[in-house]
Amino acid sequence: MNIQSTNELTTLQKQEILKLAQICKSIEPITLDFYLLTDLNIDKEKPAFFLGYEDTLLVSVLLAFFPSEEEVEFNGCTHPDFRNRGYMTHLIDTAIPYFSGTTFSRALFLREKGSGSGKAYLDAHYPSIVQSEYVMALEKKDWKTTEMTGNLQEVTDPNIFFALNKEIFSRELDEQQMQNILASSERQFFLYYHDGEPVGILNIRHCDHQEAMLHGVGILPAYRRRGLGEQMLSEALNLIFQTYRIATLEVNSKNPNAFALYQKLGFIVENQVDYHARIL
Question: What pLDDT shows up at residue 133?
């Protein structure tokens, strides 16, 4: 197998990855929505895409996502006709040296609930599951528009947004990361105001003509447990359902309070992704 490592995909490589993903989706009940950008990765020099070829055919792909210096998340797939030949192991063995011996403490390997092949591989190689992530969805027909007490406004001052992001998530982004985030054409960024003060943030990713996805939802610590998170989300959903039929979001198993809130709003679990860990 010929392995190509890169941090920037060509148009042809993107097409090859999407074609391989579609083949894998055709035989297993998975969504396999690969993120083919590196705008959120903290180190633009490290390769994020590892492509395995037999002759000119892409048969296996591994993608790395590392928005912080602590963990790297891997996702990928192998063509059904080329499984059980060690292709994914070769890709992982190629990728890991870029992250081991640095600030990264562990690698997380993502597996969708419906991926039997992924379960078999990861159970054999990295059986420790450290967390799960749930994809939840709410349809417009199941949402009743509610009156708001706060005010959701699109970001005009990035400095306020990123200051709140740091305080809410204890995560500081560098200048390049901030520029890359704000330059995204498929996302809108919002501040939530309560009594004239910005107390919450979120962003909306426009997936396609039917679906919008909520990301980065958070309220300042001093304003939590006052129902403001529910108010902010309700206003965001009012906005989303003016245009879209489906709203989706992701929530970690380590955040039961958020999970309970999303259920209260009417979201239901559509998919589950387990994170298998390897210490670096």
Answer: 95
